[in-house]
């Protein structure tokens, strides 16, 4: 009898674990309270499998809409609204929060980029190693649009191994110091055109869209299929030591 | 001193354009704070769907109450206090237990967000105290993304057996975490 109970409990926990690992809602019920700690441990273990947990671009956009308008957006689900103490039926959300909240957020001006919860890098299962093409491309703006942009960053201000993100018109780039030289490389992931984020504690450039990483040289850190390296961006150092980027 | 440039650009001096001063709009800055909150919540619920729900709850509850001129530390503390409250409600609703009981929960506690790596270290500490077979099972299943069938094959046991073993391993991990 006890064995049967354990089998049922094991089945139940496995369904919950399967949902969580698939990114779905945890469907625990009061009937699972007896194994509360085990379920919470499972959630915690699942929570460290993602090296750099960041909001998905789609969710971030929706949240930005909420912050900008202060109004209840279409995507707001009932549970979240109720939990937040907002009355959907009475339209209280739109009424009470109709004033844009952006102006109230100025106290956040000094905020920094979040340091995501790091995880041990999972050892991938053996796979055929596929090498990306070795030739590294350059970003070349059309000649009639190309112009040098002064970043106002001096070579001396750059720290070896710590990229600085700059923009030059339509070109986004990371500047990386190498001794008394500086190189520029694209700040966009070569998988999807998402802006890379420098994670100082991990010393890597992380793509928030698919959680991929590049090292400070712009080389893919992806196991298995390596992504193409980040394209070079033309840079030069002026006589006064300031770095310029060829942008648009 | 610079990087190689293509020949056709070599002679051109180009126009120097000043970059605008970098100052993120308040909404962008708030989103970055909420990234902290999202990471904090994700580490505790382990799935994107619940993490997004709870993060939007925090945004709805906390953002309208933010005041001009609040220090960054005060704002962050407020956001995380709200996040902890949302987590307590989350677990309370799931298990039908009073929130007060869950507020003291080891997975929710903490006055400030954990320093980077602490969450991982805590999990590693727990795993290191488990018997080898439990540790291997949990590592394969949770950290390396193996299906239960693959874990069973790796450990040389049946699917039914591995399910029971998973339950026992999670219970053992819970005991270790409570003791630690």
Describe this structure in words.
The complex is a heterodimer of chains A (248) and B (180). Helix content of chain A is 23%, strand content 20%. Chain A is built from 5 helices and 11 strands; from the N terminus they run αααααβββββββββββ. In chain A, strand 7 and strand 8 form a beta hairpin. In chain A, helix 1 packs parallel to helix 2. Chain B has 180 residues and is mainly alpha-helical. Helix content of chain B is 64%, strand content 1%. Chain B is elongated, with a radius of gyration of 24 Å. At the A-B interface, helix 1, helix 2, helix 3, helix 4 and strand 2 of A face strand 1, helix 1, helix 2, helix 3 and helix 5 of B.
Give the topology, please.
The complex is a heterodimer of chains A (248) and B (180).
Chain A: H1 2-21, H2 36-47, H3 57-69, H4 78-83, H5 92-96, E1 138-139, E2 147-154, E3 164-168, E4 171-178, E5 181-186, E6 197-199, E7 204-207, E8 212-214, E9 232-233, E10 235-237, E11 242-247
Parallel strand pairs in A: 1-9
Antiparallel strand pairs in A: 2-11, 3-4, 4-5, 5-9, 6-7, 7-8, 10-11
Helix pairs in contact in A: 1-2
Chain B: E1 17-18, H1 26-45, H2 48-62, H3 72-95, H4 99-103, H5 118-128, H6 132-143, H7 148-155, H8 159-179
Helix pairs in contact in B: 1-2, 1-3, 2-3, 6-8, 7-8
